[in-house]
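thought: fold this chain, then report.
action: predict
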Amino acid sequence: RTTGPVLWDVDQRGVAQVAFNRPEVNNAYNGDLIDGVLEALETLSDVEGLRAVVLSGRGKHFQAGADLGWINEVRQKNEEENERVSRATAEAVRLLNMAPVPVIALVQGGCFGGGTGIVAACDVVIAAENAIFSIAEVRWGLHASIIIPELNDAIGVRQVRRYALTGERFGAEEARRIGLVHEIVPLDQLAAAGERIVGHVLENAPEAIAETKEITLAGAFSDLPDGAFDALVDSHAAKRQSAE
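observation:
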């Protein structure tokens, strides 16, 4: 896909490049971007010989959370539409988390709200020195229920209890300290660092990688039964329509 809010391509090695493509709004997510992520992941799942996915954001920022104008539009719609939007968002993050190939995120600039859940769902996260993070939902009277399982896996309940409740921003060094980020590099070396990780992945056996990831995630916070997943979706949708 070479146009639209989400771009993707697969090279001869079986390495997919997926990019958020709404730089004019700092890659803030709306319905079109969520649908684009779902389409990309579902399409890539059918690619024979897929070995890795590299996720990035076009422009100055990786992903600046939700498009608040769009959120306000959605919240004024009926309960069914709110539930559909929350479910699509949660499914996109779950597909990313459970992908059978390694997913590598390259983060520059802002990574806020849902963006933190997206990187928490990735296997390897490399941040540029200018990256800044925030689990910001509470600032807007929302909550991060549909990404909290992935955040609990990535940074632990103790850190989620701070950063999801304060909504404060933190830099790349703190993100690495708490486990959200694996490595920090200068901005101009971000793509090269991602390619280095891809190189390591390609040296390994793909079935062994898939099985290792499946075993690792079994019993994780994000390995939710359907009922628990549905409850998070319902809670997320209801909060969007609350008085706050």
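thought: worth noting. The mean pLDDT is 96.
final: tokens above.
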